[in-house]
C-alpha cells in the first residue's frame, strides 16, 4: 500500500520545491534585470545649458559705478556725507602720513572773505591769513556749487600746476568740519578726471583737535568773489 500511495502521490522534487517557495533576489539581480535608461546626448546638453543660464541669472550682478552726485548749492556749513563718489575718505592719521611723505597735494578750499564793498577801488586789501594744515595750498572759493568760467579755469589750472599735470597724483581736499566746500571741490576734481582724489572731512579743525599744529597761509591769487556764500 505504501508503495502504491507513493506512486500515486509522489513527493515533490527539489525543482518543484524551489518553484513553490518565495522568490528571493539579490540587489545585484534586480539591478541586472532593470531596464537600462540611456541619456539622450541632446537632452543632456539642453538641461546643462538651462542650469548654467539659471545660475547666471540668479547670481548677484557687479555693483554699478556710482552715479554723479549734485553739488551742494547753499548752506555750506552743515553736516556732510561720509564720502564723495569717486573719492577716498581719509582721516587725520592718514593725512599726516601723506603730508610727511610728500606724496599728496593738500588743498584747503575754505572760502576767502569778500573784499569790503566800501573799500576804495585803488586801495590794497589783504585778507586775514588762514591757519591750515602745514604744507597745504589755499585755493579759496572753488568749493561753491556753481563756479563762474573764470573760477572754473582757475581751479583747473591750479590743479594742473600743483600736480605737475599728473591726473594720478594723490590730492587731498579739506576745509573745516561740516563744510560742503571740500565735498564739492573733491567731487569736481573727480569730474575733471583726477583718479586719486581724497576727501578729508575733519578738515583743519579736526587736525587742530588732534593736537597737531596749524600754520598761516595766504590764498593763491585768483578771481575775486563778491559774496561769502553763508560763511562767517
> What helical percentage do the residues reach?
25-40%
Please tell me how large the radius of gyration is: 41 Å
Structural class: alpha/beta
Distance between the termini: 137 Å
Instruction: Sum up the overall morphology in one term.
Output: globular
The strand count comes to 7
From the 3D coordinates, which CATH architecture of the domain at 88-217 would you assign?
Answer: 3-Layer(aba) Sandwich
The CATH topology of the domain at 88-217: Oxidized Rhodanese, domain 1
CATH class placement of the domain at 88-217 = Alpha Beta
Biased composition (Basic and acidic residues): 1-14
InterPro entries: PQQ_CXXCW, Rhodanese-like_dom, Rhodanese-like_dom_sf
Protein name: PQQ-dependent catabolism-associated CXXCW motif protein
Pfam families: Rhodanese
Amino acid at each position: 500500500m505504501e508503495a502504491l500511495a507513493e506512486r500515486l502521490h509522489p513527493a515533490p522534487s527539489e525543482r518543484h520545491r524551489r518553484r513553490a517557495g518565495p522568490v528571493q533576489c539579490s540587489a545585484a539581480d534586480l539591478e541586472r534585470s532593470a531596464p537600462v535608461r540611456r541619456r539622450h546626448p541632446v537632452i543632456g546638453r539642453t538641461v546643462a545649458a538651462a542650469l548654467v543660464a539659471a545660475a547666471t541669472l540668479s547670481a548677484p550682478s557687479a555693483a554699478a559705478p556710482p552715479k554723479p552726485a549734485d553739488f551742494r548749492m547753499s548752506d555750506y556749513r552743515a553736516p556732510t556725507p561720509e564720502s564723495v563718489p569717486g573719492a577716498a575718505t581719509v582721516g587725520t592719521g592718514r593725512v599726516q602720513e601723506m603730508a610727511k611723505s610728500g606724496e599728496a597735494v593738500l588743498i584747503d578750499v575754505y572760502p576767502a572773505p569778500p573784499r569790503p564793498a566800501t573799500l576804495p577801488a585803488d586801495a590794497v586789501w589783504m585778507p586775514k591769513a588762514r591757519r591750515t594744515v602745514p604744507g597745504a595750498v589755499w585755493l579759496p572759493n572753488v568749493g561753491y556749487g556753481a563756479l563762474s568760467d573764470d573760477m572754473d579755469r582757475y581751479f583747473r589750472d591750479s590743479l594742473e600746476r600743483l600736480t605737475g599735470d599728473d591726473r594720478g597724483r594723490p590730492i587731498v581736499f579739506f576745509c573745516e568740519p561740516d563744510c560742503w566746500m571740500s565735498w564739492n571741490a573733491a567731487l569736481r576734481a573727480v569730474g575733471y578726471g583726477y583718479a586719486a582724489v581724497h576727501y578729508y572731512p575733519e578738515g583743519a579743525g579736526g587736525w587742530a583737535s588732534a593736537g597737531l599744529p596749524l600754520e598761516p597761509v595766504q590764498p593763491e591769487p585768483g578771481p575775486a568773489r563778491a559774496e561769502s556764500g553763508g560763511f562767517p
